[in-house]
Every structure is written in C-alpha cells, then in structure tokens.
Amino acid sequence: MKISILGTGSWGSGLAQVLADNGHEVQMWGKEITEVEDIQNNHHNSKFFTAALNPSIKASTDIQVVKGSQIVLMAVPSIALESVAKQVSPYLEEGVIIVNVAKGFHPISHERLSVVLQKAFQNKQARIVSLIGPSHAEEVVLRLLTSINAVSEDEEASRIVQEVFSNHYFRVYRNYDLIGAEIGVALKNVMAIASGILDGLGQGDNARAALMTRGLAEISRYGIYFGSKPETFLGLDGVGDLIVTCTSRHSRNFMAGYEIGREDSAKKFLENNQKTVEGMYACKIVYLEAKKHHIDMPITNEVYAVLYEGKKPSQAMIDLMARELKEE
Ligand SMILES: NC(=O)C1=CN([C@@H]2O[C@H](COP(=O)(O)OP(=O)(O)OC[C@H]3O[C@@H](n4cnc5c(N)ncnc54)[C@H](OP(=O)(O)O)[C@@H]3O)[C@@H](O)[C@H]2O)C=CC1
Ligand SMILES: O=C(CO)COP(=O)(O)O
C-alpha cells in the first residue's frame, strides 16, 4: 500500500519506520530540506535520532508526492495541522484515509483535531482516524514495544489502520470514543509540564504520583463534561499516555516543565524554546474553555498562571497544596 507521511519530524519518522518495516511504500513530505535530504540520502533523521531508518523510506519537499496514496498520515504539530491539510487537499484521492497523530486542539476554534480534519477534507469524503497513545518516537524508531489506539467513529477505517500499522513491536488497539481519546492525549501534556515542574523544584515520587492521580481526575472531569466515556481515561489514551509523558525524559512537555521548575520561572524557557511542546498551547485552550464552562481545573489553572502570567512555579505548588481541604 502507498502511504504518505506529512511532516519529517520525530513522530513522522518513527511511524515511517513502522510502516516501512511492515512492507508498505512509504513516502514522506517535509518542508525542511535538511531533514528531507537526510532521510532520502542517508536513511537517518539525525536532528532527532542516532538510529538508522529503514532504507526504503523516501522523502521529498514536493507535496505532490502524496498522489495515489490510500492512507495519508498527518505528523505535524496542532498549530500547523489545518494549513498543511489545506495545502495537501488538492492532491488527495476521494475516500482517502487520513491518520492524525497530533495531540492538541485547533489554536483558534479550540476544536478537536479530528473535527478540524473532517472539515478540511470534507470535499474528498476522507475517513479520519486518530492514531494516539503512549508512544515516544525515540523508542519506536528503535523498535521497542509500543501499544497505541486507532480511534475513529468509522469502524472499518480504524480496522484498516490497525492492520496496516500493527507488527511484532507495535500493537494497535481500536477505540471509538473519539472525544475522550483526543481530550485525554491533549490534556496529559499539560499534566506532563506540571510533573516536570515538580521534578525541577526538587519534589519526589510522592508528589508525582499525587499529580498524576489528581491530574487524571481533572482530565476525566473535563472530558466527561464534553461527552467522553469515563472508561476511556483508564485506557491507553488516558492513564497510559499520562504515565509515559509524566515520567519520561523523552517527553518534551516533561522536560519543558523540568526546566521551568529548576529556574522557578517560565521566562527563560519561553524565550528560548524551539521544540514542539503541545502542552503549552493545550493549557491555554483548556484554561479558557474550563473557565467558560465552569469546570474545576486546579492544576491546569496553575500551569496557565506559570506559563502566561509570570507566576513562580514554587508559589503555584504552595497554592495547590493550600486549597480548601476536601474529599478525593
Ligand atoms: N514525538 C513523539 O514521540 C510524539 C509526537 N506526537 C505528536 O505528533 C505531533 C508532531 O510532533 P513531532 O513529530 O514530535 O514534532 P517535531 O517537532 O519533531 O516535528 C514536527 C514536524 O512538522 C513540521 N512542521 C511544522 N510546522 C509545519 C508547517 N506549517 N508545514 C509543514 N511542516 C511543518 C516540522 O518541520 P520543521 O522541522 O521544518 O519545523 C517537523 O518536520 C505533535 O502533535 C505531537 O504531540 C504524538 C506521539 C508521539
Ligand atoms: O505524546 C508523546 C508520548 O505519547 C510525546 O510526548 P512529548 O510531546 O511530551 O514529547
């Protein structure tokens, strides 16, 4: 099967490895010439990994290479998703399966990303599937064991994605609760920033366990308000992705928080960051939506205050602990 991947960053490259290992014809598209040439000529993406890529993976800066693909994978950050979708749309086949792997929301409308893609590809009758779960690209590229969900309201499309991606090191489950899964994987990035902040401030395992547990309660409260199934938050797109991101130094969200905690300020990080840290954007969107809908989100509110209002992380931690005492 011909499968195109839009985005030559870390997750696009990790998933290219899986698909090429499964014998598919993998064509990547990227705007960054150095990444594209590295993949095409050296079978590496040295900006992100030392591991070699499957040599059958092709890469180009010409977006027309997607022509004739049965599946197109969108591996760009949430803030770029809509513009890349518009750019590629003229070259897509009718009924193409679009696989989104970005975690977040539309920066202006605050819509979930599958909704953004459904609208962008309406004229192609595209079938949208989110492939999301606990999965650091750094491990997938090394073929370390990973389990993830193909989430869609289109059961047949999610079965196709499940079959196409699964292999001996990459196991794909199906899930049909798109609202819950997309909210789970977007909000865990906010909690990962909070977890990194605690680490940077010198806190330990007890604090991290409390943060993750109360963070999951917060994510579930938010998701259930918007129509998610509660059990989704006990699965790969809830607690699974929360664990992998809140506890790992591979996570850019965790590491962003760590740097902010160590400095006891977000200023330096915000001035210098060049990486994709989705939790920064998700935090603002969730803060605004929660306020609008009166959803109690104490951890998100404190991360927001640290990122956007100049609050000291140490003070945010004190304020969280000093709130009115209540039942779990
Ligand atoms: N990395 C991971 O382990 C995982 C990531 N994800 C999610 O996948 C999404 C992508 O992340 P990831 O691959 O890690 O990010 P990276 O920063 O590694 O790569 C993003 C890629 O998108 C490209 N890009 C950015 N903006 C545009 C644009 N306007 N037009 C075209 N290309 C663009 C970048 O190009 P350039 O380099 O030129 O900026 C780069 O090739 C995120 O939402 C992330 O949360 C999900 C699971 C795991
Ligand atoms: O989503 C991820 C793992 O599931 C990747 O996390 P980061 O974006 O924080 O690196």
Structural class: alpha/beta
Small-molecule components bound: NADPH dihydro-nicotinamide-adenine-dinucleotide phosphate, 1,3-dihydroxyacetonephosphate
CATH architecture classification name of the largest domain = 3-Layer(aba) Sandwich
The unreliable regions are: none
Number of strands: 8
Rg from Cα: 19 Å
CATH topology of the largest domain: Rossmann fold
- The N- to C-terminal Cα distance equals 50 Å
Helix content estimate: 40-55%
Query: What is the CATH homology-level superfamily of the largest domain?
Result: NAD(P)-binding Rossmann-like Domain
Q: What is the element layout, followed by pairings?
A:
Blueprint: E1 2-6, H1 10-21, E2 25-29, H2 33-42, E3 58-60, E4 71-74, H3 78-88, E5 97-100, H4 113-120, E6 127-132, H5 137-140, E7 146-151, H6 155-165, E8 170-175, H7 178-200, H8 205-225, H9 236-246, H10 252-263, H11 267-272, H12 278-293, H13 298-308, H14 313-321
Parallel strand pairs: 1-2, 1-4, 2-3, 4-5, 5-6, 7-8
Antiparallel strand pairs: 6-7
Helix pairs in contact: 3-4, 7-8, 7-9, 7-10, 7-12, 8-9, 12-13, 13-14
1,3-dihydroxyacetonephosphate binds at residues 103, 134-136, 189, 192, 241, 244-245, 251-253, 278.
Protein name: Glycerol-3-phosphate dehydrogenase [NAD(P)+]
Pfam families: NAD_Gly3P_dh_C, NAD_Gly3P_dh_N
Binding site for NADPH: 10-11, 31, 103, 137, 252, 278
